[in-house]
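Table S2 (text version). Query chain:
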Amino acid sequence: MLEVNSVSLHYGAAQALRGVSLKAEAGKVTCVLGRNGVGKTSLLRALIGQHPVSAGTITLGGEDITHLRPADRARRGIAYVPQGREIFPLLTVEENLQTGFAPLKRDDRTIPDVVFSLFPVLNGMLRRRGGDLSGGQQQQLAIGRALVMRPRLLLLDEPTEGIHRPRDRVSA
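Corresponding structure-token output:
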């Protein structure tokens, strides 16, 4: 379980988060909703260690991770899909997926079948460059890359951004 207790975060003198608390239970989906500019992305950056908190604590499975580096949080099973995807455009789809291997032990460095069952289009595009994919395919690649880590906690920032959804057919 992830627990966030009274977390505050500053960017210089500007306060982005003030006393935020939440719990995310294992096996459940927890959503953070709000309009633009209220701190959703800042909260996710604090959770992955990309930006230090000014106050409060973050625990994962009962372990205080508040001051751990991002790489150490990844090794503990936190995967992140940023808004805007941030795939590597010059790497192939397969190479992009393999970048998720970093926190894994050498024996675990395989792409799990779940990635291709969720996103079958990626299986046929393994040799294509990430930058040649459509926006929706790049989003699928970014989520797939996070799943390669076999995360305990998957953090998604605007996860459906750019994913194509076919229009519902209307019968006449």
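Notes on Table S2: Residues 114 and 147 are 8 Å apart (CA to CA). The first strand starts at residue 2 and ends at 11.
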